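Section 3.1: Structural characterization of target chains.
Under the original work plan, the team committed to producing a structural model for every single-chain target entering the pipeline before any wet-lab resources were allocated. The record below documents one such target. The sequence was received from the expression subgroup and is listed exactly as submitted; it comprises 130 residues.
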Amino acid sequence: MAARSCLRNISDEGVASKTKIYSVDGDLSLLLSWKDTLFPGSPDIKYIGKEKLIDSSSSTQKLADLLITSSQDFITFSEVQEKCGINKRKISQALNSKTVKPIRTAGGWIKKKVSEVQGSGRGLALVRIT
């Protein structure tokens, strides 16, 4: 993974101030899976980019991009199906894929019944736990 970062203001404890990591060709799921090892005690990664899901090639990559870029705390499986092209019955499998699982875990996304979240309704949804 090729990346560029600018570290500034390292404290006496060896902790750097906020930094931006610029990565063009990086494997985001790999970075997120090693985040706690590479950057212990750091806050959640704020991802900027890939605003259009149309450019993504696979449906699992589209799902990963959706979880990263979504500002919502609640996404129904119907929305996932519409935006990513994944059959509702295959979404659970896609959530555990090598591409999506680290992003889902790092983002705090869990699967719940819509009725548990909204009080009524049918189906499943992804809920961001903060």
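Residues 95 and 101 are 6 Å apart (CA to CA).
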